[in-house]
Amino acid sequence: MKAETTFVPGLEGVIASETAISLLDTELEKIVIKGHDLIELSKNNDYLDIVHLLFEGSIPTEKEKKQLEERLKKSYDVPATINDILQMLPKKTHPMDGQRTSISALAGFDDHIDDRSQKANNDRAYDVLAKIPNITVNSYRILNKKKPIQPRHDLSYSANFLYMITEKIPTEQEIHIFDRSLLLYSEHEMPNSTFAARVIASTHSDMYGALAGAVASLKGNLHGGANEAVMYMLLDANTVAEFEALIMKKLHHKEKIMGFGHRVYMRKMDPRALIMKESLRELCKQDGDFKLLEMCQAGEDIMKREKNLYPNLDYYAAPVYWKLGIPIELYTPIFFSARTVGLCAHITEQHLNNRLFRPRVKYIGEQY
User: For residues 188-216, b (16+ Cβ closer than 10 Å) or e, as one string?
Assistant: First the structure.
């Protein structure tokens, strides 16, 4: 007797796991992280608060946050072998492939690689998180024939990350906006990359392997690559009118407009996009150039009118990163860097309460 099967394309709406980490509550329009509203957290907290919340279960005290920052600073540096490996890769390699390769290589430096306990996973999660800005930026630099840049241990986590990207000490406003973007990208329940990481972790594979799989997932432009595509689209136009014409032309040819629509936020704007929109406005006020904001607003209006689609986080994160002086090729690697904290939390949770993922299929081949 054949078992009955229900097929849901893309597993849309299918409950794949139980988690105490996060939830997209579409009815209350909240992104819940360990019982906290992510959007509310973005108003008064920073990225390291989210790190402590996801790894330790609470918003840190000032003392705890200082200890966390010092712990990360001690691990900013990467083994020299990592950069040697990057030097050997073909220069046409995408920075995300360099990022993936570097994370995978870190496994060889873990003396307790087979320990899946919560303490061991937390220790390696902190270590990976500390090193990810170094790995991310120098993957890009080395593959673009630039010398590796060393981290600044006197700078905060987000300030150092932005410094390594731009090679200049960022202003307080720049640090705040960049840190806010990291916070908003930090965790988002069960998107493709998180599911990929949990599937890999469910085999009892190590954290590095699960993270490498998540990088591969996030590289796809239907998931993480959208922010890069948005910026290239914006640069294809010189004025608001040209951008409106570009979008209308793409719609006429039934092309996908990147930065719009979301599998979960189908009837409203991604609340994270609203925060990034305000960040873009802040940066425009700072330099007096509102063109990108006006173009984005025009595109937002067209998509709502023509397709009833709303911006997702990538739509406004892209011009924010452009204003911060970040190379487009680094947009998606930065997305992954920010999401590393959430991914590590999911991998750790999977290891602690594991069940091997082994779904079935609906067979549509030749009959037998």
Answer: bbbbbbbbbbbbbbbeebbbbbbbbbbbe
What token pair was written down for 19? 């988690």
Q: What's the pLDDT tens digit per position in 252-306?
A: 999 999 999 765 655 678 899 999 999 999 999 999 999 999 999 999 999 999 9
Per-residue model confidence (pLDDT) at position 345: 98
The active-site residue out of 52, 270, 314, 346 is 314
* Annotated catalytic residue 115: no
Domains 32-219+329-352 and 226-323 share a fold: no
Active-site position among 36, 262, 346, 351 = 262
pTM for the full predicted model: 0.94
Q: Tokens for 154?
A: 């006197």
Is 223 annotated as catalytic? yes
Instruction: Provide CATH code, domain 226-323.
Output: 1.10.230.10
SS3 of the chain: helix, strand, coil, percent, to 5? 60, 5, 35
- Which class is 32-219+329-352 in CATH? mainly alpha
Is 112 tagged catalytic? no
Q: Are 237 and 276 in contact (CB under 8 A)?
A: no
State how far Cα 196 lies from the chain centre: 14
On the 0-12 / 13-18 / 19+ scale of CB atoms within 10 A, 63 is exposed
